Amino acid sequence: MNPIIEQIKGGLVVSCQAYPGEPLRHPETMAQMAMAAEIGGAVAIRCQGLADIAAIKGQVKVPVIGIWKEGDDGVYITPTLRHARCCAAAGADIVAIDATRRPRPDGLTYAQTVEALHRDGVIVMADCGSFADAQQAVDAGTDIISTTLSGYTGEREKTDGPDFELLGQMVDAFPDVPVLCEGRIHTPDQLAEVMRRGAWAAVVGTAITHPTSITRWFAARLKG
Ligand SMILES: CC(=O)N[C@H](C=O)[C@@H](O)[C@H](O)[C@H](O)COP(=O)(O)O
């Protein structure tokens, strides 16, 4: 097992992302957010975009999971080999990529992408939207598989909280592969539950680092 993957076992990964046009969207700001999360106990930081990866890598000691989003539908999380290589070059210790079975913009298969990244020495995390995606990722020898895209690709219902069912299926089927639970973990209890169900680690984004969403959750309680 790679020592970086070993290092995050049992821990909380915090995703620090601001979306296009948002007030906090600045690499310096995301680096500050990442430092704050590290002080709070994050075992790794997940972040988006080459500038954010570089800024955060320069400020935190914990491993950085890098992605590069291009657009917001279809294959948009680190969609091509080029995007993934750039994330690694920017300093990501682990690169997360779209692991769906949809056609990739550069025409490579998922397996070809992973193979090329492994030749470069990159640790690859598969952002899956279904069990079939996870199977493909494991068949390709991916280092880490994750529930990240569950509820976002049309293959699975978007659950209110984390997709416990998919997590369970992945943990049961692939006992030798680290399975991360990511997506809609909104409370410490949900975090504890995904770990109890066998997640290697869990990624929390919105509930920790997206104040506009958190404010909306509170504000919504004031309306009818
Ligand atoms: C589907 C998609 O694009 N997910 C993205 C992946 O990086 C992020 O927008 C999420 O914030 C992240 O996965 C963490 O999940 P949550 O914010 O629900 O804790």
TrEMBL record:
A biological process term (GO) from this entry: N-acetylmannosamine catabolic process
Alphabetical list of Pfam families matching this protein: NanE
GO cellular component, one term: cytosol
Source organism, top-level taxon: Bacteria
Enzyme class at the top of the EC tree: isomerase
GO molecular-function terms, A-Z: N-acylglucosamine-6-phosphate 2-epimerase activity
Catalysed reactions, semicolon-separated: an N-acyl-D-glucosamine 6-phosphate = an N-acyl-D-mannosamine 6-phosphate
EC number(s) reported in the record: 5.1.3.9
Entries under CDD domains matching the protein: NanE
Keywords: Carbohydrate metabolism, Isomerase
Pathway: Amino-sugar metabolism; N-acetylneuraminate degradation; D-fructose 6-phosphate from N-acetylneuraminate: step 3/5
UniProt key word Isomerase: yes
Keyword Isomerase on entry: yes
Family annotation (NCBIfam families): PRK01130.1
PANTHER family from the UniProt entry: N-ACETYLMANNOSAMINE-6-PHOSPHATE 2-EPIMERASE-RELATED
Family label: Belongs to the NanE family.
Annotated function: Converts N-acetylmannosamine-6-phosphate (ManNAc-6-P) to N-acetylglucosamine-6-phosphate (GlcNAc-6-P).
Protein name, per record: Putative N-acetylmannosamine-6-phosphate 2-epimerase
Source organism of this protein record: Bifidobacterium tissieri
